[in-house]
Amino acid sequence: MKNLMLHFLLCLVLFPGSMLQAESQYRLGSGDVITISVYGEPELSIPTVLIPSHGYITYPFLGRVPVSGQTVSEVSDYIYQGLKGDYLIDPKVTVSLTVYRDFFLNGEVESPGRYPYQPGLTVRKAISIGGGFTDRAAMDDITLIREGNNDKGQRVDLNNRVLPGDILTVGESFF
């Protein structure tokens, strides 16, 4: 986890605008880990929250909070609105994404499986993480299923971007 955070911070220094914009538009989903903090209110701060498959977390005073499909800013606003007035006058709520959900790699790669997502991941890098192509791999037959799309996938090339929750499949060559 320290390596992932170090990588993320390095990306923020090297590519500040693109990384902040990408994270601000990123939609949370099952398997992501967030941190919630409310300034001056340790009992309302939660250091580690793994988002479950049903997409809701339990938060003090508010009960079930919808997080799946929301941005960190939207979750922060939801908690702010829920705490404002009845519990606190002007709560300072911060929600941070600490760990992205995994991506999946299968088919003709040396080590198929689930892998931790890294910002800036491409199909080429994902296949490298999985040990590279097998001898039988069809390098021009790579499909990607994006999380949330229930289709059979779309063909991609080695330079396409991979997002958290994506499923990559490398086809088999018949020659």
Gist of the model:
By secondary structure, the protein is of the alpha+beta class.
How would the blueprint of this fold be written?
Blueprint lengths: L1 H13 L1 H10 L7 E6 L7 E5 L5 E4 L3 E4 L5 H12 L9 E7 L3 E5 L5 E3 L7 H7 L7 E9 L8 E3 L10 E6 L3
Parallel strand pairs: 6-10
Antiparallel strand pairs: 1-2, 1-5, 3-4, 6-7, 8-9, 8-10
Helix pairs in contact: 1-2
What does this structure look like?
24% of the residues lie in helices and 30% in strands. It is α+β, with helices and mostly antiparallel strands and 175 residues long. The chain folds into 2 domains: 2-99, 2-Layer Sandwich (wza like fold); 103-172, Outer membrane lipoprotein wza fold like, CATH 3.10.560.10. A 5-stranded mixed β-sheet has the order 7-6-10-8-9, with helices on one face. The protein has a 3-stranded antiparallel β-sheet with strand order 2-1-5, covered by helices on one side. Helix 1 packs across helix 2 (16-25). The longest helix is centred in the N-terminal third of the chain and has 13 residues, at 2-14. The termini are far apart.
Descriptive labels:
175 residues; wza like fold; Outer membrane lipoprotein wza fold like; 2 domains; five-stranded mixed beta sheet; three-stranded antiparallel beta sheet; 10 strands; disordered N terminus
Tell me the major beta sheet. Answer: 5 strands, mixed
Q: Evaluate the radius of gyration.
A: 19 Å
Would you tell me the structural class of the helices and strands?
alpha+beta
The fraction of residues in strands falls at 25-35%
**Which strands sit side by side, in order, in the main sheet?**
7-6-10-8-9
Indicate the CATH architecture of the largest domain.
Answer: 2-Layer Sandwich
Helical percent range? Answer: 10-25%
Supply the CATH class of the largest domain: Alpha Beta
**What does the overall shape look like?**
elongated
Overall strand count: 10
Enumerate the spans where pLDDT stays under 50 for 5 or more consecutive residues: 1-22
Give the CA-CA distance, first to last residue: 41 Å
Order of H and E elements: HHEEEEHEEEHEEE
